[in-house]
């Protein structure tokens, strides 16, 4: 299915956030609303999305945010929903894939069901949504794609084999999208958060450099505004990532996180 390109460039900029009902996604919705975007907010929890829309629209004093209940594992539903959103907003300039799932696993656990669930949300859902964004943006010759990855994708840790693999896979996919689409005037931003104070972080026993979701959303907005390719949030995780990537394997495999 192809999505019609809106010629209404005079309409306000439009953005989709997939995984917007809580945490970082909700903070991004609030940040983008302040920049004047029309927003399509997507997640499973329709009530949480409706409450967020009410709050954003109340602050803006006009309807700027709309809710779309959707489970990203239903990849067949993505193309028609994407078309509906484009029709409703009239224009799309930015698609953010933020939906994520990190299930706790012990150091001796190998659970294929859990692993498939994480791959379905973190990687396959991202591919389904961002392929739609890529098709639209390459046809219209403008737009930005943003994927929320993780510091966990920088190295294969003992603590989170498949969560890390899903984010490493997302990094590779986003890099390929960037290399394809840059010549069509489309920017692709990969976001690598360290630790953000959300529901997801509650499953993480060891915490460091934790920042509030609003601060991460601000870092991401500044990176989008500058059309950057990769951003770590907070910035100090860039150095952690650099160090992690250079620790020799013989040492890295002895670490227990
Ligand atoms: N928090 C951190 O420290 C941290 C660090 C590195 C990377 N990240 C990444 O940042 C992103 C946001 O995480 P967060 O910390 O804000 O987590 P969160 O509070 O748990 O929020 C996760 C979001 O993803 C959505 N989601 C999950 N499964 C979904 C599904 N099947 N279909 C549709 N939406 C789904 C949730 O909405 P519903 O439940 O309503 O569907 C929710 O809006 C994730 O990609 C995560 O991997 C977070």
Name given to the CATH homologous superfamily:
NAD(P)-binding Rossmann-like Domain
CATH class: Alpha Beta
Helix- and strand-based class?
alpha/beta
How many angstroms separate the termini?
43 Å
- Count of helix runs: 8
**Strand content bin:** 5-15%
Description:
- With 257 residues, the chain is α/β, with parallel strands linked by helices.
- 46% of the residues lie in helices and 15% in strands.
- It has a single domain (14-252), classed as NAD(P)-binding Rossmann-like Domain (Rossmann fold), CATH 3.40.50.
- The protein has helices at residues 23-34, 46-60, 78-89, 112-140, 161-181, 213-225, 236-246, 249-252; strands at 14-18, 38-43, 65-69, 94-97, 143-148, 186-193, 230-233.
- Strands 3-2-1-4-5-6-7 form a seven-stranded parallel beta sheet, sandwiched between helices.
- The chain binds NADP nicotinamide-adenine-dinucleotide phosphate.
- NADP nicotinamide-adenine-dinucleotide phosphate (NAP) binds at residues 19-25, 43-45, 48, 71-73, 98-102, 121, 148, 150, 193, 195-196, 198-201.
